[in-house]
Amino acid sequence: LSRRIGGFTDSVIRRMTRIANAYDAVNLSQGFPDFDPPEALKQALAAVAGGSLHQYAVTWGAPNFRAALARKQSRCMGIPIDPESQVVVTCGSTEAMMAAMLTVCDPGDRIVVFSPFYENYAADAILSGAEPIHVPLRLPDFALDAERLEDAFRLRPKALILCNPSNPSGKVFSRAELETIAFLAGRYDVFVITDEVYEHIVYAPHEHVYFASLPGMFERTLSCGSLSKTYSITGWRLGYLIAPATIVNGARKVHDFLTVGAAAPLQEAAVTALNFADDYYRQLVVDYTTKRDLFLNGLDRLDLRYTRPQGAYYVLVDITEFGADSDLAFCQWLAREVGVAAVPGSSFFREPINHLIRFHFAKRAATLDEALTRLESLR
Ligand code: GLN
């Protein structure tokens, strides 16, 4: 077998879901909702099922879907996006990120990744042959250290990966931080590959600033996103990459040979979601704010320590007081004995950090209540 696959393990996030299932634990590990998408979307799916869209869509995305996506992202990002030349529809943002790296990096190129980071990026870097340079964010609030970032840029990386709002930390990069990144990206001529799948899950007073919308940044940004989180359809595997036409031309070739294309009937059905009015996104924030507060209030009652998420739907909880040998052992014990599954924090950090575990709260109130009730046995 290849040396490449020796470089990484299976996903700990997805492994924790299998462990949760084995122990019948409340699964707050892999982040996905236990509630249905909007009714209109389910109806749109039912409608396409009876139609004739059972063959390949256009490789880089069905024209309908690209048009609706470009309209919606233009409105949200505040920049014009041409659906004909600046969009690739992918199988989830997972493929978009992989395609982005393969589009800009040659084997041996360096790529800057903040730590903590979403675990896929490490495997993506290995698969593309790029060498990650990790830049730690400063605990406990994950502040950007501009000097460390510049040190990394001095090593002449090809690209930086920016997950904003951030998984697993819940950090939302401030405009000032993004401007610092933009300044350095310009000075050192670095591409920025964003993962903005939580663009619509941001808690007041924080606001999401799209990196590509900063002055001069569209030209060097590969904006990756997804419909999974925004419309609660993680199983549809619909993502996208938006960038200038020259970059998109390259990404379309990569995408073509990776997957040929995303599912045609699902693209057609999802146009309904992309056409939702702004009210939908306002309500999404209200709903997730309620979930976040429910879960954090529960953690407060249990006197557990955590960093308050500003966006996304994850919270890193400090387990130092439990004196576990490892965060992985703690998570296995927690799933088996307490009946709640979390992800060990070490799977997100480059530094030897062992005292954090990640819960997600994209669940119905009843599920979160059940998890909190079970967690009471920690006390
Ligand atoms: N982004 C989600 C998480 O971090 C899951 C993504 C996945 O498993 N594809 O848990």
From TrEMBL:
Enzyme class (EC, first level): transferase
Source organism, top-level taxon: Bacteria
Cofactor (UniProt): pyridoxal 5'-phosphate
One Gene Ontology cellular component annotation held by this UniProt entry: cytoplasm
InterPro entries: Aminotransferase_I/II_large (IPR004839), Kynurenine-oxoglutarate_AT (IPR051326), NHTrfase_class1_PyrdxlP-BS (IPR004838), PyrdxlP-dep_Trfase (IPR015424), PyrdxlP-dep_Trfase_major (IPR015421), PyrdxlP-dep_Trfase_small (IPR015422)
GO molecular function: kynurenine-oxoglutarate transaminase activity; pyridoxal phosphate binding
The EC number(s) this enzyme carries: 2.6.1.-
SUPFAM superfamilies listed in its UniProt record: PLP-dependent transferases
Pfam families cross-referenced by the UniProt entry: Aminotran_1_2 (PF00155)
Keywords (A to Z) from UniProt: Aminotransferase, Pyridoxal phosphate, Transferase
Domain Aminotransferase class I/classII large as annotated: residue spans: 24-375
Family membership noted in the UniProt record: Belongs to the class-I pyridoxal-phosphate-dependent aminotransferase family.
Protein name: Aminotransferase
Lineage, uppermost ranks: Bacteria, Pseudomonadati, Pseudomonadota, Gammaproteobacteria, Chromatiales
